[in-house]
Each structure stands twice: as C-alpha cells, then as structure tokens.
Amino acid sequence: MQTKVRREQMLIAGDWIYAEKTFQVKDPQNNQVIANVPSASVEDMIYAIEQAESAFRHLSSWPTHERILVLNLAADYIEEYFEMFSETIATEGSKTITEARGEVKRTIQTIRISAEEARRLKGETINFDQKEGSENRVGYEYRFPIGVIGAITPFNDPLNLVAHKIGPALAAGNPVIIKPASMTPLSALLLAKAFTHAGVPKGFLSVITGAGREIGEPLVTSKAVKMITFTGGISAGEKIAKQAGIKKISMELGSNSPVIVLKDACLSEAVSSSVSGAFAAAGQNCIGVQRIFVESPVYNDFLQSFIERTQELQVGDKMSEWTDMGPMIHEKEAIRVEEWIQEAVYEGAVIEAGGNRDGAFVEPTVLTNVSHESKIYKEEIFGPVVIIESVTELQEAVKLANDVDYGLQAGIFTKNVDHAFYAIQHLHVGGVMVNDSSDYRIDEMPFGGVKGSGLGREGVRHAMKEMSDQKVVCFKITNMLGA
User: Which residue range or ranges hold the Aldehyde dehydrogenase domain (predicted)?
Assistant: First the structure.
C-alpha cells in the first residue's frame, strides 16, 4: 500500500512556514516517499538568526520558572503523543519500532532533566579575603545565558539528540536554531511542535530544514550565533571548526569503540551486552561496539557464543516488534559497508557471520583476523559490523584499543578491580563502562570524547555549562561601620 505523502512546514522564529523549494524524505526500508519537507534558503537562515538575536535581547532575563514550565509542558506533550513520536522515528530512520519507543522514553527524560537542571544553574560566593588587603571585599560569581545557539544534528538519534540541544539551551535561557539531518527531519519538526504547544517564547526556537551545504555556513559563521553544537562526522566537524571563528564549539564526532573481555569475565553477560552494542540501530551508533579484544584463554568460547547470538538476531521489517535490526539509513551507506567488508576480506579477514547485503539491509557481521591497517579496523564503520580479536593480556588489549584516532567510550568485562582500574587509567576515551559494553549512556552523565571524537561534553547539566558564561561580582565596602 502506498504511503500517503505529507507536506511539512518548518519552524522559523515561532512561525510555521512552507517553502517554494522542497526535498523528499524516504523510508529507508522500502524507499517510499513519506514527506515533502521545506528546503530553506540562506535568507531563511539569516532571518531566523536575526529573530533569535532580537528575541534574546528582549528576553535576556527569561525567568527560570517559565523555562521550567515550558520544558515540562513539552515533555507532557511527547508523553501524550508517545506512539506518534515513536512511529515517526521508526518510519523515517533505521530504528525498529521497539528501539524508537526507547528513544522517545529517553527524550522525555532528557527534557525533564533539563527542567530540573534549570533551577540548579547557580554560581557561588567567593572568599575575596583570602588575599591580603582584600578583607573589605565580598562577592560572588553567577552564570548567564550566552545568546543564540546553533545546533546541527545527525540522523541516527533524530529525536533525542535534538532534545539534547534544545533542552539545555532553553534551560540555560538561550534561543536555539536547529539544523536537523535531511534524511530524518520529521522527528525534529515534531519535537518543535511540542515546544510551540508548550509556549516557548517566539524567536527562541527555530527548526530549519534543508541542505547543510547551503544553510549550514551562514549558521556557523554568523557573529550573532555565540555557540555551535554539532553531532556528526569528523570531516564535517573539522570544516565547522575552521569556519566558526571565535565562538564556543561543542562537537561529538563519532568513535571506533573498543570492548575488552578478560578471562575472568562473565562471558554470557559480555556476549549479550556486546552483541546488543554492536548491532543496535543497525550499528549506526557513535558508541556502538566496533572492536572486541578477548583474552586468549576464553577467546574461542566467546567467539562461538557471540556468533551464535548474532545469528539469532531477526533482521527485517522495522515496524514489527519481533525485529531486532532494520535497514541502514540509505542503500548507499549499506553499499559502503559492504565494500569495507570485502576490502577487509581481500586483506585477510574472515567472515564468521553475516557479510551479505540486500538493498539497505546488511546482515549483522562478525569479522576475525582483520588487518590493523584496514579501513574497517581504523575508521568508524557506522554499520552492523564487529571485529573480534584474541589478546594475551590486558596491557596488549589497552594498547590496541588506543591505537585509533578516536576516543569516545570503551567497555571492559572483568571481576578484578585492579584490572578495571588499569583500564580506566590507561584507555584514552571519554568514558569507561565496567562490565558493560561501550554502548551505555544515561542522558545526565557527561558525554564526549578525546582525540578525533570531539570537543566538550554533552549531558544536560554539562551542556548547560557550555551554553552559559560566568560573571564575577566584587563589592568593595568602603565604609565599614563599627560595632
């Protein structure tokens, strides 16, 4: 049955508008067109920035209690239309309906946390009398909103990653302009409806859809935009960093996440967690498991169990609750992953499971004997492929884990606390998950990486600090009254 094609509007400074030029959003599972979405012009983006700056000037002291109310009402709206949000994520993207429902739950939590943290964005008093001669000075520092935030979001978490930009920005008192991924803009537009329904001040939120190559540069380079927060690939991140000029930049640029499994680990837990971490969202996950290093005494048992569990995964219709893994976001991405697999095999890799492609679907794939110089080993796969390798000891595993240009998160499975702390201290990553795979996150924790994985930290409270500045106030008391 042919899906009815929707005609969407975009949100510019509080007004929902159509555009003369549009682009198609397709369901990657069957390539059916599901919506025609406005393709914004440079003038649209400039107007949104101007209106955001004007709104901020007129409401720079937006009361905290009003921010809290707007955020909670937006979360209420999402709860009320929970299934609509879930179906939107699953239809326009790669996630199964079960995974989409999980993302909606997390989005609600992200926005609720933003409301809670709005009341906690505080300064502190300063003891000026710690310096000799400053006994008659008192003061404090406080945080204030920086102004217009420009946010660019990816396709793989089309709702919650947008919430991670909007929630902290509004909680800190800033207007925010969202440029969502063109493959999955519908979730961001639906989230914008939740916030307009909640009463976000006019001009404080825009969701501008269209080609990044056309409307990205005016957003990034505008002097009125005080911060750029970007989640995406490293090449785009490098370009943004060069264009942005002197302003705050926060970037999450992906990873090539390792998991270490030691001989004393609970193998069943390590297998279950790592299979899920490798193949959730068809492997299109920045903290997804890509390389697994297994201590040699348990390597064969781990590998066999991992292969068996992988082969049990149900690949197919993402709208079925029985499906474990759906398609990749686009057939061209599936073709890329297939080519990387074939290149690795040519260089000596062995396919232990999967390896085949059908349209946008790639089978969950397990590789061994992968060359450390191959593209699939050194770069971010961003697809349903995992590499498993035997190591002789923890130190070797840590050295290999660090031998890439990424460092977002890592996992280690062990019952030995000394081994756990060795990994914590020596893995070059932003987060170490002990007895979990790399694919674990809660929305309040600081989230970000080192090396090529990015700059700064997300996680609501930590993003709010990035989206605010400090001001120091000092009073010199010149007329000290006697007793």
Answer: 18-473
CATH number of this structure's domain 257-434: 3.40.309.10
Instruction: Give 3-state DSSP helix, strand, coil % of the chain, rounded to 5.
Output: 40, 25, 35
CB-based contacts of 426, cutoff 8 Å, min separation 6: 398, 402
Please list the active-site residues: 252, 286
- Quick: pLDDT tens for 77-123: 999 999 999 999 999 999 999 999 999 999 999 999 999 999 999 99
Query: What's the pLDDT at 360?
Result: 97
Query: Does residue 1 surpass a pLDDT of 50?
Result: no
Q: Is the pLDDT of residue 481 over 80?
A: no
Every domain of the chain with CATH number 3.40.605.10 lies at 6-253+453-470
Whole-angstrom distance, CA of residue 328 vs CA of residue 3: 20
CATH 3.40.309.10 segments of the chain: 257-434
Give the per-residue pLDDT at 2. Answer: 52
The C-alpha torsion from 10 through 16 and 20 to 21, rounded to 10°, is 0
Residue 60's pLDDT band (boundaries 50, 70, 90)? Answer: confident
Distances (CA, A) of 312 to 47, 193, 353, 384, 422: 52, 39, 11, 14, 34
For the entire predicted model, the pTM comes to 0.95
Q: Is the confidence at residue 39, as pLDDT, over 70?
A: yes
**Which tokens hold the place of 481?**
């009254």
pLDDT of 479 higher than 80: no
Q: Where are the alpha helices (DSSP H) in 182-222?
A: 186-198, 212-221
The answer to whether 412 and 403 have CB atoms below 8 angstroms apart is no
Report the distance separating Cα 169 and Cα 154, nearest Å.
18
Dihedral Cα 55, 42, 159, 274, nearest 10 deg: -130
| pLDDT value of position 28 | 97
C-alpha of 2 from chain center: 32
What's the CA gap between 465 and 443, in Å, rounded? 15
Contacts of 59 (CB under 8 A, 6+ apart): 201, 204
In this prediction, residues 265-275 reach a mean pLDDT of: 98
Structure tokens at 266: 């609970």
In the prediction, which pLDDT does 483 show? 45
Among 136, 133, 160, 164, CA closest to 151 = 164
User: Letter for the amino acid at 133?
Assistant: G
Q: Are strands 409-413 and 257-261 parallel, antiparallel or unpaired?
A: parallel
CATH class as words, domain 6-253+453-470: alpha beta
> Which of these, 306, 357, 290, 307, lies nearest to 327 by C-alpha position?
357
